């Protein structure tokens, strides 16, 4: 039988990557905790990138951000809120006035209808204030679960769900936190595995990471703080 000389250590043979991938549990709580710690350290105190001064402005900005960059939305909203500073003023505006001010965000006709309709519901049903429950806020035209989670989480600090946008979708799948492909199912998976007090900040951090490093095409894996924990098949560089 072969013996080791005193003072020498037997080197563990490196597992082939496929075997390593299969033997890992991507949902191991320790791994998830490491991902959360790294994200928090990489993006301390991240906030929503949409400029807003209150819940109503954040609701409108989030409606406008569909299929549009936050930078573009932030260029448009100052003039929009100067012209119509309150839900009451927005409810009384004509569709064409709103359309003219939001044209460059794309899908402007639908967005104008949603914004005016949401303003009317806020004024008529909720006394001019954006409501603070998921059930009520979903009554606003143009407000689906993603927008509701943004407003409830970022403005009111109420964590009733996880914002799942295109970045959160892509990165959650690359990090194997979900295998689902639709936002509602991905949100359900994330709510099961993340502590509730991280639901709000986690999506902000992932959105920043998706914008700065983990691009849809050619992610910058060599610069990624999560690289060691990532086994995504579309990595552009790997250390393991
Ligand atoms: S290693 Fe690459 S694919 Fe994985 S999270 Fe980082 S940037 Fe994205």
Itemize the secondary structure elements and their pairings.
Elements: H1 17-23, H2 29-42, H3 55-64, H4 70-83, H5 87-92, H6 95-102, H7 108-126, H8 134-137, H9 145-155, H10 166-174, H11 183-193, H12 199-212
What is the radius of gyration computed over CA atoms, rounded to a whole number of angstroms?
22 Å
Shape: elongated
Low-confidence stretches: 1-12
The sequence of SSEs as H and E is HHHHHHHHHHHH
Class of the largest domain in CATH? Mainly Alpha
Question: So, CATH architecture of the largest domain?
Answer: Orthogonal Bundle
* Count of the domains: 2
Could you tell me the CATH topology label of the largest domain.
Endonuclease III, domain 1
Tell me roughly what share of residues is in helical segments: 40-55%
Distinct helical segment count: 12
List each distinct ligand once: iron/sulfur cluster
* Largest sheet descriptor: none
Could you state the CATH homologous superfamily of the largest domain? Answer: Hypothetical protein, domain 2
Strand-residue proportion: under 5%
The helix/strand class is mainly alpha
Report how far the terminal alpha carbons are from each other.
32 Å
Q: Mean pLDDT, rounded to whole units? A: 92
* DSSP strand count: 0
Q: What do these coordinates show?
A:
- The chain has 240 residues and is mostly helical.
- It has 2 domains: 55-154, Orthogonal Bundle (Endonuclease III, domain 1); 161-240, Endonuclease Iii, domain 2 (Orthogonal Bundle), CATH 1.10.1670.10.
- It has helices at residues 17-23, 29-42, 55-64, 70-83, 87-92, 95-102, 108-126, 134-137, 145-155, 166-174, 183-193, 199-212.
- α2 crosses α12 (199-212), α3 (55-64) crosses α4 (70-83) and α3 packs antiparallel against α9 (145-155).
- The model is unreliable at 1-12 (pLDDT under 50).
- The structure holds iron/sulfur cluster.
- The site of iron/sulfur cluster has 13 residues, from loops.
């Amino acid at each position: 039988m072969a013996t080791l000389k005193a003072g020498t250590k037997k080197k563990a043979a490196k597992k082939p990557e496929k075997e390593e991938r299969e033997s890992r549990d991507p949902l191991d709580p320790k791994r998830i905790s490491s991902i959360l710690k790294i994200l928090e350290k990489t993006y301390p105190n991240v906030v929503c990138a949409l400029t807003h001064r209150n819940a109503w402005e954040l609701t409108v900005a989030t409606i406008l951000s569909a299929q549009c960059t936050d930078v573009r939305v932030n260029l448009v909203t100052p003039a929009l809120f100067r012209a119509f500073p309150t839900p009451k003023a927005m409810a009384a505006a004509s569709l064409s006035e709103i359309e003219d001010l939001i044209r460059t965000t794309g899908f402007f006709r639908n967005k104008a209808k949603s914004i005016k309709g949401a303003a009317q519901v806020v004024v008529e049903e909720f006394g001019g204030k954006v409501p603070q429950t998921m059930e009520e806020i979903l009554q606003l035209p143009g407000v689906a679960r993603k927008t509701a989670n943004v407003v409830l989480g970022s403005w009111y600090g109420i964590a009733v769900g996880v914002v799942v946008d295109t970045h959160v979708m892509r990165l959650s799948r690359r990090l194997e936190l979900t295998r689902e492909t639709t936002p509602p199912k991905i949100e359900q998976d994330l709510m099961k595995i993340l502590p509730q007090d991280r639901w709000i900040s986690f999506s902000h951090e992932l959105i920043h990471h998706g914008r700065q490093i983990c691009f849809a095409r050619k992610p910058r894996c060599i610069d990624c703080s999560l690289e060691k924990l990532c086994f995504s098949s579309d990595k552009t560089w790997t250390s393991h």
